[in-house]
Amino acid sequence: MRAGVTSAVYNCILRIVRHIFFEKIMTRLSILALGLLFSWQATAAELTVSAAASLTNAFRDLAPLFEAKHPDTRVQLNFAASGALLQQIAKGAPVDVFASADQKTMDQAQEQNLIEADLRRDFVSNSLVFIVPADSSSAPSGLNDVNQPKFARVAIGQPASVPVGRYTQAVLEKAGLWTDIEAKMIGAQSVRQALDYVARGEVDGGFVYATDAAIMPDKVKVAFTVPTETPILYPIAPIAASQNPEAAKAFVDFVGSTEAREVLAKYGFGKP
pTM here? Predict the structure, then answer.
């Protein structure tokens, strides 16, 4: 009986010792892991890149490629219409790099001394197209056709803040069609919203960039390409108030590299 009791006590003590030893080991490992995490967070600088909505897919591919070359930097991407991004930057949003879909928006940023003007550069080109839902039986062949009654709802980016909307307005004004088509315009807050309107069949057609139309070939089809008097060139520049100026300059340089151009070309962007 005593032997049984002694054995039970011994096993109990052994379990307690093992538990205490295991807890100490796990605690030390946890502390070590947290230490490594905090150390990495402390050394990895954050780079915030605000880019035009049409750059979404391409820049999501470029970010990890840049991080691989700069392991001490983490890229945070912020996408919206160029005008909306400019407003954020002007109000003091912590941004390091700005990539716009048009020159006018970047010019405004430069006029307000928000960017490093001497480091500004054009890095890609694009084109304007008119798209319709993929299952649409009506495909206009030119701008005059868009003015027909069967195209009662047309998605256009808001010209005040969306570059694709400004390009569209300029083209339609030159053709003498802006007033008529504006009356049936469904305003979009970005080119991607205009694309979504068409893809979901909520409108009869819309004006977007060729690169945006290309990402939804099963939902939309290009009816025709719209020549623009002003070439569609995308500028990029570091923000003057960047908290990480070296990384910001490095990212601007990176998007002009051969590696980055291959990615951008994959999404339909041309050379500037």
Answer: 0.82
